[in-house]
Amino acid sequence: MNSVSLVFKMAFRMFVHEGNWKIYNIFTLPVLSITFASFLAIASLSIINGFDNSLKEGLLESLPHVRITSLESDIADEVINLVEQEAQILGSASFTTSGSYVIANNNYAFVNIIATSSVNNLPSIFSGQQVPLENLFDVDNQIFISSALSESLSLEDNDSVILYFPMSSDSVFGRLPRLKSFNVQLIPLDSLMSMDEFLVIMSLDTFSQFIPSGLTVNIVDLTLEQPMNVNDWNHNIPMQFNGRGSISYWSDNFINLFNSINITKSVMLVILSVIYIVAIFNLVSSNLIEIKSREKTISMFKLLGMRNELLISLFVVSALFRATLGISFGVILGLLFSESLGVIFNFIEVILGGSLINADIYGIDIISGRLFFSEVSKLIAIFFCIAIVVSYLSAKRVTKLVVSQVLRNE
Amino acid sequence: MNNVLSAKGVTKLFADGSRDIQILNELDFDLLPGEKVAIIGASGSGKTTLMQILAGIDRPTSGRVELFGRDLSDYDDYSLSKIRNNDMGFIYQAYHLLPEFTVLENVALPLMIGGTKTREAKDRALRILKEVDIADRANFLPYKLSGGEKQRTAIARALIINPKVIFADEPTGNLDYNAATMVINQLLNLVLDHHTSLIMVTHNKKVAEKMDKILLLKNGILEQQ
Fold first, then answer.
1. Which pTM was predicted?
2. Which of A299, A372, B89, B206 could join B166 via S-S bond, C-beta 3.0 to 4.6 A?
3. How far apart are CA A76 and CA A82, in angstroms?
4. What is the DSSP string of B87-121?
5. What phi, psi does B160 have (nearest 5°)?
6. What would the pLDDT profile of B135-149 be if each residue is shown by its tens digit?
7. Among A14, A300, A410, whose Cβ lies nearest the Cβ of B93?
8. Residue from the list B78, B110, B169 with its beta carbon closest to the beta carbon of A304
């Protein structure tokens, strides 16, 4: 215990340059570079988490958290009971089909259902099957498509297309036909809103050729108290009910988006680790410089009977003081940045005179910083582990010191 | 009486490019308990090298050095550290005080490294600082001390463990005449009080004359004066 306190005391005195205390002695290049790297890591984590969170919150306001789609109305009650065992349900809304249309972009077409709420009788639109666009179309019946889409598909009025449904097997609509022919009717662009310029519309009669006539689809949407947690428990509930119905969660609909955010986060952390490695190299070089500049002191320590292990500990602790200072300042700056990210965001937008995020694309126009204790503590732990390892490896240099050579001319 | 230290047939070669330079040539040396020996010689004659070999800091090319009757080459790093901490004191021309520590802490350091409790180590350090007349500087950092005071602090640090032998390499080299006289007199008195043997490398003939024995290192061999 005595030697531990001695090591800490000596290392601290060496770190603060007792008797010659100057701010530039403390905030040396390695400390500043570790501060910078730690700050960047925390700030980037805060931005990407904030973006992820804002996006999710925006989606959760406009999307049902859980959707039950079935041909049998009693499936919904069964599923609701299962969901209630896992999460608190704030509210629900049920719908039945009353019409349909197809909406398409450059890559995919979606058969959408117009359904009427059983509560207020208002129509709502639900996405249906996804169809690869290159497999669309021959003509038999009529469909309406926007002129923008017709250009991209090189289609004109009365052209023939074949609508192809890849899922010919089980779906909520039963067994769908794989191919169906249509006559194309163009919709003038000026009659559409910009977001609908790739619209395809078909009548309920046309659509009914894909699903058995007279079939009613029941849709129940649930709103949850804590929708963010669905992935923690949704694996406990079956996704399909023997072709009678299915359950989907809000996160499933954007799984690619959230996966890409996670990939971005991982890539960002890899890039930041490179910056941290540079900072760590600075720490190593400063340790070696420290050992070199204190060769005579180290030699004297050895002559006073200090063992190599104690000497190594001394320089490890001394290096860790520098690393701790750098990491602490970096984390504090990162936390401050995270807290004031919204203000910084607004400020940059005012300076640049425009918005940094396109609300039309992402559904959000501002990001608030967001950090999770577990992520930050994991990051700090990793930083410390790396600092301890490199400090130890560089401090081992003291054992190679040849006292007789250092003190030969003294 | 058993020797504190003895060297038999010690030779030391240094490589200089492709050829070897012989610094010590089958040299013999004995040190009795409480004996004070001065090693003198021209610059580059190998005085410091000899002292380092006798202290186990450097190893001879051939020959053997026995410390308390045991061959130094038999000691591992741990044992050597322990012996240095318990039985050897070192005093250098450049003092080598720790600049971040007070005079009291510098002197207490060997005891603290050896595991003595801080309070006890500081009490003993204060007592020995009184013996070298710088107790009033106990809480000063080294940069505030004069050269003489620094060297007296170094002497106190060397003596605090009651070593069996002290190695002093030009202890007065950085001091003016008056300071040097005062420091040497204090060192010799303390060595006498503590029954410690002393090996001192020096250029200063007046200092050397105060020792029990003067050895001249010339051509790698010691000659008694």
1. 0.70
2. B89
3. 10
4. HEEEEETT----TTS-HHHHHHHHHHHTT--HHHH
5. -60, -25
6. 999 999 999 999 989
7. A410
8. B110
